[in-house]
């Protein structure tokens, strides 16, 4: 063990080192104090917030970014305005914390800052907001302490242990909370902490890392004084120990090892490297000057050499220039490496090796003299630039080592597992996806905004043309990237297959050759006959720009995890790969499949303090990482996305509706199957033609458009078992073929030892085509019991992916082995990432599980009451009821009594939720056009399946009719809808009907329904429906727009109304009726209304809680007519000025109750900064949003505030 005096021999350097070592000893002591005090500061802040605002200390938030909770103000150093927009708030706008917590914590942090703006109590000056991440305030007190660090160099210091001496002392100085730890008065301009800070500066800035003996002793004495000033009892022992070490260090009696020396230099490494770089830059200037002088001395020799060697010498000179630059740069790099590892060797090298460096350069000067003359500045710039590039490349290589390892593993993992079974009927025929792939038909859907110029939209979720055909169109809108993309589609339409294709293409984009056979295939796969279709999704260059793609199957994490980034991290760590959070700093695609198969873990809200869950109260979707460089693609069934709130600008919604050409898909599947059997190309073509003809002859065109079903039909046709019938018959036949395959594998006649007869489904099973199923009913019953019990499992996490013990609760181990042989159950590993060590069991496809569950219902009709009670208890609200859709459709084809009861339950749940949303002032227009439509379509599709499966007496309940789908070019659908209307015409509860503006058809059917449902109809939405007589209706909700004329309206029972660009006559009639009978209306929305009767009607609406006006000029005079009951006023898409906003603020402050006011996406031409500044100066209001969007010729302002009642 060497003494430090042997390592550092120069007395001046030794003195400097003692002071630096003293800083390290002091820092180590102060570090424990700062960490403990930071926790105490957090607790103090929470107690104060609880005292002031009643927010309990167990309430936490991890959703608010720092810009969210910091008001945008030019006084804040982090708020830099450019083109009218604040860079700090560019992504995350100021808003109110949903837990009402983070904004108050922000204020408390300011309160504890010593140098806050005391002249402006509402100012947020003082803390360094750039340093901190508000999402971590409740979990990591150090993030609060970081607010008291200086701005430069500490943003990425995420642990107190990584903070240097200067940072620790700055926290003590800037945070008033630390005064309690010191007997010295820290409010004085000069105190023990400021003196210690000066010591740090003297040590860091000491020239040539040298100090006099007196300066070194004085520095150590200052540090001793700092520690002796500590008065907190918990740290007296630690401080005394540190003081003793400092005194020994000063006297030279402290035993210090080489490790201590290395640690001390490590803490000063960054600063020392910077100083050495600066010294080297100066040294290079001297070297170049010496080179120029040498050139003048040896000019004659150079000229002689040039004349003798001619052009060869010139070429050599030109080459040697780079040799010298590389030599100089290489030596600089060597010096920097030595500094990083052994700083004391660098010091000796600088002192002792300078002459060697000069000699080396001088030896090669003859080769470069001509190039150097007159280009001194160019040489220096080249040296600096090349040195910078070398250092950057080294840093990037070190940083990317882990990332490259992760990317490489991802590509290998995806390619290894990216095989697909040709059909669910034979999972043993695994081929690469490209063998059968046919591009999907993908269209963008437009949601939810009323049209200003054309009245209400025909459909709140309408398809937008043209079809999406490449990844760039999917991931960008108008050339700009979109960070959240939803892809919805019905069961079997190809969502997972498209996801797999995207994963494969990403792998190929990052492979060495880039292109793939799949690219070639997709150029030809869509070509049939003489028609050439465009290339689909072959733009690998688009995917090449995304460094990582993480494919997560959400069904694997259902009920167990809710944070997608954590799912990815756990999956990577589970295969023993190192993880680096810097992954999320690169462009990533996070592809999550089957969101409809995911459920949130059973965690209370708000979650416990030690919970990893940071989700909001509404937990229908997992939590995604929201960053500009992260692109989330989420696939799900339509019902899952029906109620999801989506931003018009930040998200996109697409729909997969099958493949671009199902004939090509059929040809590809037949080709793969035929190759296995050695069938010639000519016979393959004949089979394809025969298949298409049979599909047309048996009217199976509605089934073949679904890719998964199309593949099943092709396989059944190929083996000669295609039967005419319904969806149920296709799946029944498929089940029979699975059993036959299992028997063939095991070379046995049947699985069952127990005979079982189920009379209820003999007609459904048939007698000829399903002999294997009939002979093995005991096994089928066990599989169907498992399917039903898991789908109705209240814990949810076991509903789709389950462990072996779950299975053996419903069957024997032998039966489980049999089902694995048939392929109905599978343990096959998926392409997606998963942290599961044991591969879980699942049904081959969710539709098979749903079919078997329906079969279980049909096989157990004597126990129908218990079965239905189970279904009703699990699927009991609108969030879950739509998930029952496919189960219901299958049940309609197999068990009419159960289907009728389930349809009644679906209707009751939707009705109950309508009532709930009416009470809570929710957006009923959106609910009617999404949830009720989804439920309506499920029931209609179920009725169609029942008819196809010969359930002729099926009497379904459907009291929520959606006429938008009535215009489908599908005669079966129209017949089913009209039949259901006839069945329920006197019991309608809600009707939503929208026609295009050009609609010519008379809405006589609508008037007939209205007339016969006067006693039950409560919710009505009309768009471009012409004349409607509403006499006798007791409506609770009404929405009408466009070319709609209403008459005989009675508002007595009405609670909410929404009117969008109505005809003047209808508007006048409505306002007149509302003025007389509208005293119970709580919510009113008017868009582009033109009548002047509104002011006259408002005072009579004595229950009005919320008023929303869209596309209508802001008339402050309207405010004075509002009743005392008003609590919320919203103006949207209007032109406003400061003269409008100020009276509105004064009006809100004059109310005796708390009132919320909102201006959303309003056009403004005034000085926005002046308005915001004026708002912030107002007492008695709480500003919850102040957002400005700069457009080409105008600005959009979104401004929200609520009044604060005086106590």
TrEMBL record:
Pfam family, one: DUF4559
Protein name: NACHT domain-containing protein
Provenance organism: Dreissena polymorpha
């Amino acid at each position: 063990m060497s003494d430090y005096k042997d390592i550092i021999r120069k007395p001046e350097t030794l003195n400097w080192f003692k002071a630096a070592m003293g800083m390290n000893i002091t820092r180590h002591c102060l570090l424990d104090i700062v960490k403990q005090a930071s926790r105490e500061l957090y607790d103090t802040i929470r107690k104060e917030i609880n005292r002031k605002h009643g927010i309990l200390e167990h309430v936490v938030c991890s959703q608010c970014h720092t810009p969210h909770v910091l008001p945008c103000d030019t006084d804040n150093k982090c708020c830099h305005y450019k083109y009218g927009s604040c860079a700090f708030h560019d992504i995350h706008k100021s808003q109110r914390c949903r837990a009402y917590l983070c904004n108050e914590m922000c204020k408390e942090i300011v309160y504890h800052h010593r140098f806050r703006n005391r002249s402006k109590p509402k100012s947020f000056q003082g803390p360094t907001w750039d340093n901190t991440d508000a999402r971590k305030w409740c979990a990591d007190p150090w993030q609060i302490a970081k607010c008291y660090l200086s701005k430069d160099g500490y943003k990425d210091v995420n642990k107190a242990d990584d903070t240097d001496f200067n940072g620790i002392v700055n926290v003590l100085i800037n945070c008033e909370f630390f005064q309690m730890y010191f007997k010295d008065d820290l409010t004085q301009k000069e105190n023990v902490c400021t003196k210690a800070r000066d010591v740090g500066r003297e040590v860091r800035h000491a020239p040539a890392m040298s100090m006099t003996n007196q300066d070194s002793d004085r520095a150590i004495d200052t540090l001793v004084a700092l520690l002796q000033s500590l008065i907190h009892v918990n740290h007296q022992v630690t401080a005394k120990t540190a003081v003793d070490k400092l005194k020994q260090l000063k006297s030279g009696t402290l035993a210090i090892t080489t490790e201590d020396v290395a640690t001390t230099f490590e803490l000063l490494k960054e600063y020392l490297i910077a100083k050495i770089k600066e010294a080297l830059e100066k040294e290079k200037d001297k070297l170049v000057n010496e080179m120029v002088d040498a050139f003048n001395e040896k000019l004659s020799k150079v000229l002689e050499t040039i004349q003798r060697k001619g052009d060869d010498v010139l070429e050599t000179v030109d080459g040697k220039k780079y040799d010298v630059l590389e030599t100089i740069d290489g030596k600089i790099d060597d010096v920097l490496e030595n500094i990083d590892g052994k700083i004391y060797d660098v010091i000796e090298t600088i002192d002792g090796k300078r002459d060697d460096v000069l000699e080396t350069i001088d030896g090669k000067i003859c080769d470069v003299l001509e190039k150097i003359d007159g280009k001194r500045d160019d040489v220096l710039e080249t040296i600096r630039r090349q040195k910078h590039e070398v250092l950057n490349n080294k840093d990037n290589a070190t940083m990317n080592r882990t990332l490259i390892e992760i990317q490489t593993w991802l590509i290998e993992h995806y390619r290894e597992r990216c095989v697909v079974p040709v059909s669910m009927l034979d999972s043993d025929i695994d081929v690469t996806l490209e063998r059968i792939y046919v591009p999907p038909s993908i269209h963008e859907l437009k949601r939810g905004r009323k049209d200003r110029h054309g009245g209400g939209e025909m459909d709140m979720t309408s398809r937008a043309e043209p079809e999406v055909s490449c990844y760039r169109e999917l991931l960008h809108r108008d050339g700009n990237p979109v960070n959240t993309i939803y892809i919805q589609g019905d069961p079997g339409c190809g969502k997972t297959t498209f996801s797999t294709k995207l994963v494969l293409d990403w792998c190929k984009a990052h492979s060495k050759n880039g292109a793939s056979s799949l690219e070639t295939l997709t150029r030809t796969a869509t070509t049939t006959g003489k028609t050439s279709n465009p290339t689909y999704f072959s733009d690998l260059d688009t995917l090449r720009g995304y460094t990582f793609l993480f494919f997560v199957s959400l069904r694997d994490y259902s009920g167990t995890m809710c944070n997608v980034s954590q799912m990815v991290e756990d999956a990577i760590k589970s295969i023993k790969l190192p993880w680096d959070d810097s992954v999320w700093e690169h462009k990533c695609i996070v592809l999550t499949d089957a969101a409809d198969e995911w459920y949130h873990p059973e965690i209370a809200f708000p979650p416990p303090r030690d919970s990893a869950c940071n989700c909001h109260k509404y937990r229908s979707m997992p939590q995604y990482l929201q960053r500009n460089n992260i692109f989330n693609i989420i696939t799900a069934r339509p019902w899952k996305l029906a109620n999801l709130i989506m931003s018009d600008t930040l998200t996109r919604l697409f729909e997969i509706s099958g493949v671009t050409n199902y004939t090509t898909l059929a040809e590809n599947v037949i080709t793969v199957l035929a190759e296995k059997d050695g069938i010639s190309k000519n016979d393959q073509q004949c089979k394809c033609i025969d298949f298409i003809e049979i599909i047309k002859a048996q009217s199976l065109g509605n089934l073949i458009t679904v890719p998964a079903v199309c593949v099943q039909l092709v396989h059944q046709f190929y083996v000669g078992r295609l039967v005419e019938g319904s969806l149920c018959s296709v799946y029944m036949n498929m089940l029979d073929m699975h059993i036959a395959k299992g028997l063939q594998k095991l070379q046995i006649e049947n699985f069952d030892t127990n005979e079982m007869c189920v009379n209820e489904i003999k007609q459904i099973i048939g007698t000829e085509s399903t002999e294997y199923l009939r002979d093995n009913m005991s096994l089928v019953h066990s599989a169907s019991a498992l399917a039903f019990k898991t789908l109705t499992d209240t814990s949810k996490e076991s509903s789709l992916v389950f462990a072996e013990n779950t299975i053996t609760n419903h069957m024997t181990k032998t039966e489980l082995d049999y089902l694995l042989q048939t392929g109905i159950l599978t343990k096959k590993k998926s392409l997606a990432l998963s942290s599961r060590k044991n591969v879980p069991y699942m049904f081959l496809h969710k539709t098979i599980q749903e079919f078997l569950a329906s079969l279980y219902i049909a096989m157990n009709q004597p126990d129908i009451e218990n079965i239905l009670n189970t279904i009703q208890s699990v699927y009991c609200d609108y969030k879950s009821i739509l998930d029952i859709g496919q189960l219901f459709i299958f049940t309609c084809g197999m068990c009419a009594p159960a289907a009728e009861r389930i349809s009644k339950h679906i209707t009751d749940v939707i009705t109950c939720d309508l009532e709930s949303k009416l009470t809570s002032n929710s957006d009923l227009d959106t609910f009617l056009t999404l949830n009720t439509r989804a439920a309506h379509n499920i029931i209609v599709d179920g009725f169609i399946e029942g008819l196809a499966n010969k359930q002729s007496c099926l009497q379904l309940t459907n009291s929520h009719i959606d006429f938008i789908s009535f215009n489908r070019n599908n005669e079966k659908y129209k017949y089913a809808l009209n039949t259901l209307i006839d069945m329920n015409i006197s019991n309608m509860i809600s009707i939503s009907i929208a026609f295009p503006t050009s609609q010519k058809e008379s809405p006589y059917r609508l008037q007939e329904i209205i007339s016969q449902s006067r006693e039950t109809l409560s919710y009505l939405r009309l768009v471009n429906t012409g004349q409607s007589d509403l006499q006798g209706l007791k409506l609770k909700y009404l929405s009408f727009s466009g070319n709609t004329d209403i008459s005989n309206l009675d508002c007595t029972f009405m609670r909410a109304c929404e009117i969008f660009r109505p005809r003047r006559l209808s508007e006048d009639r409505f306002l007149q009726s509302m003025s007389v009978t509208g005293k119970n209306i709580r919510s009113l929305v008017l868009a582009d209304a033109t009548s002047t009767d509104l002011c006259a009607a408002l005072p009579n609406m004595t229950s009005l809680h919320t008023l929303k006006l869209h596309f209508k000029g802001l008339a402050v005079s309207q405010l004075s007519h509002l009743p005392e009951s008003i609590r919320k006023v919203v103006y949207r898409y209007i032109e406003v000025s400061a003269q409008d906003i100020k009276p509105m603020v004064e009006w809100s402050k004059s109310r005796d109750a708390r009132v919320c006011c909102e201006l959303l996406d309003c056009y403004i031409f005034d000085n926005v900064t002046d308005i915001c500044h004026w708002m912030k100066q107002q007492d008695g209001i709480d500003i919850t949003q102040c957002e400005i969007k700069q457009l080409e010729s105008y600005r959009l302002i979104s401004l929200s505030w609520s009044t604060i009642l005086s106590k």
